[in-house]
Amino acid sequence: MSTTDSKSNLPVRGQSRAVTGTGTDTAGSDENQYLTFKLQSEIYAFGILNVKEILEFGKITKVPMMPDFIKGVINLRGEVVPVVNLARRFGLKSSEITKRTCIVIIEIGSEETRQELGVMVDSVSEVLQIENDQIRPAPGFGAKIRNDFIRGMGKLNDDFVIILDQDRVLSVDELAAVRQVREMAPEHVDEDHEEFGRSGQDGADDSGGDRS
Amino acid sequence: MSMEAALQTYFAEAREMLEDMESRLLEIEHIDAGELPETLNAVFRAAHTVKGSASLFGLDGIVDFTHVVENLLDRMRDGEVAVEEDLISLLLRCQSHITTLVDETETDEQISEDSRRLSQHLIVELGGYLASEDKPADKAGLPTAGEAADDHAEQFPADADDETVDNECWHISLRFGRSSFRDGMDPISFLRFLDGLGTVRQVIILDDWLPDLADYDPESCYLGFEIRYMSQASKKEIEDVFEFIREDSDIHIVAPYSRLSDYIDLINAMGEDSDRRIGEMLIDCGALTESELAKMLAMQAAAEEADQGRRLGEIVSQEDDRLGPVVDAAAQKQTQMREAINRKQKSLRVDADKLDHLINLVGELVTSGAGTFLQAQILGNPELIESMSKLNDLLEEMRDASLKLRMVAIGATFTKFQRVVRDMAADLDKDVDLVITGADTELDKSVVEKIGDPLMHLVRNAVDHGLEPAAERAAAGKPETGTISLNAYHDSGNIVIEVGDDGAGLDADRILAKAREKGMVGEDQQLSRSEIFDFILKPGFSTASQVSNISGRGVGMDVVRRNVIEMRGRTEIDSEPGEGTTIRIILPLTLAIIDGFVVGVGQAAFVVPLDVVQECVEFSEADHEEKDGQSYINLRGNVLPLVNIRQRFAVRGERPKRRSVVVVKADGQSVGLVVDRLMGEFQTVIKPLGPVFAGLSGISGSTIMGNGEVALILDVQGLVQQITRRPQRSATHS
Amino acid sequence: MLQVESRDGASHVALQGELTIYQAAELAERFLPLLRREEGLVIDLSDVSDMDSSCAQMLMLARRHCQARGHGCALVNHSQPVIDVFETLGLVSWFGDPVVLPGESGPKNRPGMDAGMGGGA
After folding, report:
1. B714 and B665 in one domain?
2. Cβ contacts (< 8 Å) between B690 and chain A: which residues?
3. Which chains neighbour A (Cβ–Cβ under 8 Å, 3 or more pairs)?
C-alpha cells in the first residue's frame, strides 16, 4: 500500500478521498501510523495500513434482518461493501448522523479472505505517528468497549488513544454469526454483548479448524 | 504460433484426450459387444493422437511409452487380444501413467526417474499381452528404449509406416451417373437414407461436372458428393444403400481408421476426369488431416519409385507450399497440426482469465448502460431515449452471448466420477453402477469449477454409507449391484444437480435423536422430514464415529452445504427408507448477470429475478384471506399464498393504499410477493453480498442500480420454500 | 411456376410450387433464358413447396453462370422444404446465402408487467 504520512487534509470533505497523502514527513514507517477518529467523545484509532479510503456518509442500502450494527451496504466503485455502525458494534447508542460523519473503508483478512468493510465513525481526526514504546496493553477493566477489541492504548501527550484490533472489531465470523441468533429473535437488541462473547469463542474455534 | 504456445495447446489437448480415454476404458465393462469396436476405436484414437502429437514436439518419453499402449490397443481392436478385466485395469494404469508423463513434461520439461522406471515396468506388463501374438516383434512394438526413439525420430521416410488415419468416420465418394434423375434416383433420397443408418457428418457437393449453360441438360445429373459419415453399420450395409445406382455411378467407401494407402487407392480409383484436387477435398471434408496427407505424399513418392500407381502430385495442389515438400522443419509441422486441429474442432481455446475479464467488462457495460438510459429518460429527449434503448438491446444480446461463452456441459465433471466410483467400489468390495443422465446440461464454467468438491463428497458418501453391503441388499430383496445416479437439468433459471443412491435411505428418527442430543433442536419442536434430513449437512452435526451407523453420511458434509451456499445455491434431500437417498444441489445458472424485475417497498428497492416472475396483479384486500398466520389471495380461482415483503423484511415506512402482487414461481409452487411499487425490468450484474451476510435468508445477493444505489436481490426459491414448509413448522417466524 | 419482375437492374424471380424432375424441363425453358439478360438475379424461394436435386442443380448452374459474368445471384426467403433439401445436399454452404435456420425460439415470452396491472381475478 502506498499510504504515507498525511497529517493534513483530514477530516475529509467531498466525495471520497484515499488516504494517500504526499507528505514529506518521513520520520516513521507506515506500521506506526494510525488514523484517529472520534466516536462519542472518545478517540479511537485504526492502523493506517488497512485503511483504504474515507468516504463522506451517503446513501446506504439497508439489509433487512441484520443486527443494527450492520448499517447496510454501499456501492464502492462497483463493489458492494458492508458498512458497520461502529457505535452499535461497541454496544453504545447510535450516533446522530452529522456533516462530519464518515465511512472509513478498511481492508480485513489475509490473501484469500481479503474483504473490504466500511466503518461508520462520528468524525475522522488525523493520521498520527505512535511509536511502539508509546503503546500500552489494554487495561484489564474500565474500558467502555469489549477488551479484546483493544489492541493497545496509545499515549498522546496527556491523553490516550484507543487503538483498535480491527480483526476483532470487524471479525466477519462474528458479524455473520450473530445474525443467526438474531434471526431466531428478531426484536431484541440488548443481547448483543452476550452474543458477541459466545460467538466470539465459536469464531476462534472455526478459524482454527476450517482451513480445508 | 510460438513453439511454447503450441506446446501448451498440446498439453491441454493431450489431457482432454486422456480423460476421454479414461472414460471410454471405464465404459468398456458396461457396454454391449456391438459397441465394443467403436469404443476401442475411441480409446485407440486417443492414445494415437497423444502419441502422434507428442512426436511432433519430440517428446520421446511420452511417445515411447504411448506407442506400446497404442500397439496393444490396435491388437485389441483387431480382435487379436481379448478384452478382459485385468487388461482394462492395466490400461487404466497406463492411462494414468501417460497423464503423469504429460504433467511432468509440462512442469519439469522432463520425465522423472521414477516415471521412467514405471514406464519400463508397465511396458513389461503390456508385453505380456503383446507377446502372445504371432506377428514379428519389431512391428508390434515392445521396443527397447533406443529402438522406440528411432522409430519416431524418423521424418516421414519413403518407406514410412502405412499409418492408420485419425478419422472415426466413414468416407463416401459419390459420383452420380448422368441418367440418375431420369431413372428416379435422386441423391437426396440416398443422403436421407444414409442419415437413417447413421449420421451424415458433412456433405460437400461437387459442381465440377456441371457444364456451361449451353451444354446443360436440365434432366441430367451432374452432381458428385464427398460425405463424412458416422455409422455403426457394416461396409456391406452401406454399400447396399447404393445398390440401384451402382451400375451407372461411381461409389467409393472408405472405412473409419483406414490406412493411408486406402485413401491413395480411393484417389486412384476415382480416376477423376476433372482436375478437382481430391487431396484437398479430403482435408476439406475432414477425412484426412494435412499431416496425414503429407505422409500420403511421401508414400506415393515411394510407390512411384517402385513404378506403381499414379503420381499423387498431379492430383494434389502443387502450388500449395504447405503440402509440397514433405519433409520440413518442425515449426512447419506444428502449423499443420494446429490447422488440422482447428479445422477438426472448429473451436478456439481462450484463456479463462481473459474470458472472465470480458464478462466483467460486459457486466459493467450493462450496468452503465442502464444508468445512461435512466439519464436519457430524465432528460426526456426522445431521440436519445430511442437510441439508448437500441443500445441497451444490443448490450443485452452481447451479455447473453458472452455468458454463453462460459457455458460448458457438466458431462466431463460427471464422467470423472466413473473412476471414483469404480475405485471405491473395489476398495469397499461393493458392486456399484454409476448412471449418468443429463450430461449435456450446460452451466456456467465458474459453477462447474466449484461443484467438483461438493459432488465428490456426496458421491463418496453415497457409495460408502448410502449403499448397503451386497449381503444386506440381497436380504432386503434388492439387486446386489447398487446404483449411484448423477443427474443434471435446468429448472426455472436454476441448474439442479442430483446425486442419488438406491441404498437403505436415511433414518429420520435417528437423525432427529442425534440433533436433539446435540441441542440443535428443542425437545418439543416438530420438524418435517426434509428439515430433519437437512441436519446431515449442518456443521457440527456429524462426526464420523458417532453417526457412521446412521445409515447416512459421515464427516465433511457440511463442506458441501457451505460450498453450495457460497454459490448462492441450496440443497434438498429426499430419502425413503429402503429405497435410497437423493441429494439435490440447486444452483443459479450463472453467477454473473440476471434479468431483474425491480419492485419497491417503502424506501427500499428489491430485485426479483425475471425468469421466475409469472405476472403482476393488483393487491386487493377483498380477495385477501388469512389462515394459520398465512395470507392468501384468490387468483382466478386458485389459492395463492402471499409473502408480504414489507413484513418479511421488516421494512419501515407507511403502507401505501395501492399495492401490487408479483406472482413468482419456484419449485413448481406459485407465490405472490406483496410489494408497494413495480419499477420495471432491469439487467443487472449480481454482486455477492459477501461472508458477513452468508446466512441471510430471503436475499440472494445484491446489485448496483443505474443510479448507483445498491438493491438487494430476493431469493425467491428460499421465500417460496419457507411458505411450502410452513405448515409443518412450529410458529417461530412471524 | 415462376414470376419475373425486372427492377433496380436485376431480375426478381419468384419460384413457386413443386420443382422436381417432372417440372425440370419446363422450368429450364422459362428460367434459363433469364440468365442471358446480363443482369443480377434475385431468386425468391418462399413459395417453393417441394424441390429435388434436379432443380437445386439448376439453381447451382444459375449461381455459377452469374458469378462467372460478375453478376450477383442471390437466393432469398428459402422456404422450409428448400432449406431441408439444401441441408441434405450440403448446398447451404455451397451457396452461402443467409438462411433462416429453424429451431431458434421466437422472442422470449415475457409476462405482461407494464404499468397497468390488470385486475386480479
Report:
1. yes
2. 80, 82, 115, 172
3. B
In 3D space, the residue among A46, A39, A45, A116 whose CA is nearest the CA of residue A74 turns out to be A116
The answer, yes or no, to whether B and C have at least 3 beta-carbon pairs within 8 Å is yes
C104 touches chain B (CB under 8 A): no
Q: Is the pLDDT of residue B356 over 50?
A: yes
Alpha helices in B621-678 (DSSP H): 645-648
Chains that touch B (3 or more CB pairs under 8 A): A, C
Distances (CA, A) of B530 to B512, B522, B576, B584, B668: 11, 17, 11, 12, 17
Instruction: State the CATH number of the domain containing residue B518.
Output: 3.30.565.10
Q: Are residues B631 and B705 in the same domain?
A: yes
Interchain contact A/B (3 or more Cβ pairs less than 8 Å)? yes
Do B149 and B181 belong to one domain?
Answer: no
Is residue C60 over pLDDT 90? yes
Q: Do C21 and B181 touch (CB under 8 A)?
A: yes
Whether chain C lies against chain A with 3 or more Cβ pairs closer than 8 A is no
Considering only the top CATH level, what class is A16-166? Answer: mainly beta
- Phi and psi at residue B612, to the nearest 5°: -100, -5
Q: Which residue from B191, B204, B216 is facing C61, i.e. has the nearest CB?
A: B216
CB pairs under 8 A between B and C: 108
Share above pLDDT 90 across residues of chain B, in percent, rounded to a whole number: 7
Of all residues in chain C, the one with the smallest CA distance to B183 is C21
What CATH code is carried by the domain that includes residue C60? Answer: 3.30.750.24
Residue C115 lies in a domain: no
> Which one is predicted more confidently, B124 or A126?
A126
Residue B164 lies in a domain: no
Residue B516 sits at the vertex; the CA angle it makes with B510 and B517, to the nearest 5 degrees, is 90
B163-191 per-position pLDDT tens digit: 566 667 788 888 898 888 888 888 998 88
Structural domains of chain C, count = 1
Tens of pLDDT, residue by residue over B571-581, are: 888 888 888 99
Nearest to C63 by CA among C95, C39, C33: C95
- pLDDT score for B133: 44
Residues of B in contact with A180 (CB under 8 A): 695
C-alpha cell of B595?
Answer: 434479468
Asked if the Cβ–Cβ distance from C113 to B681 is below 8 Å, we say yes
Per CB-CB distance under 8 Å, the chain A contacts of B722 are: none
Give the chains touching C; criterion: ≥3 Cβ pairs < 8 Å.
B
pLDDT at A117: 92
- pLDDT value of position B195: 84
Same domain, B295 and B338: yes
pLDDT digits (tens, 9 = 90+) for C68-84: 888 888 888 889 899 98
Domain that holds residue B297: 170-345
Chain A residue closest in CA terms to B652: A64
- B460/B418 same-domain check: yes
Q: How many CA atoms lie within 13 A of B86 on its CB side?
A: 6
Q: Looking at the predicted structure, is the pLDDT value of residue B207 above 60? A: yes
B219 to C119: CB separation less than 8 angstroms, yes or no:
no
Residue B145 and residue B10 share a domain: yes
Collect all residues of chain A within an 8 Å Cβ-Cβ radius of residue B695: 176, 179-180, 183
Residues B399 and B324 in one domain: no
CATH number for the domain spanning B140: value is 1.20.120.160
Domain that residue C91 falls in: 2-95
Record: contact B695-A73, CB cut-off 8 A: no
* DSSP conformational letter for B583: E
CA A173 to chain centre: 15
Contact C90/B at CB under 8 A: yes
- Same domain for B176 and B323, yes or no, is yes
Q: Tell me the ipTM for this assembly.
A: 0.82
Query: Which of B537, B572, B588 is where one domain is finished?
Result: B588
Among the residue ranges B311-320, C12-21, C58-67, the one predicted with the least confidence is B311-320
Give SS3 for B139: helix
Q: Cα–Cα distances in Å, from A47 out to A50, A145, B191, B621? A: 6, 18, 77, 56
Q: Assign B206 to helix, strand or coil.
A: strand
Is residue A183 pLDDT above 50, yes or no?
no
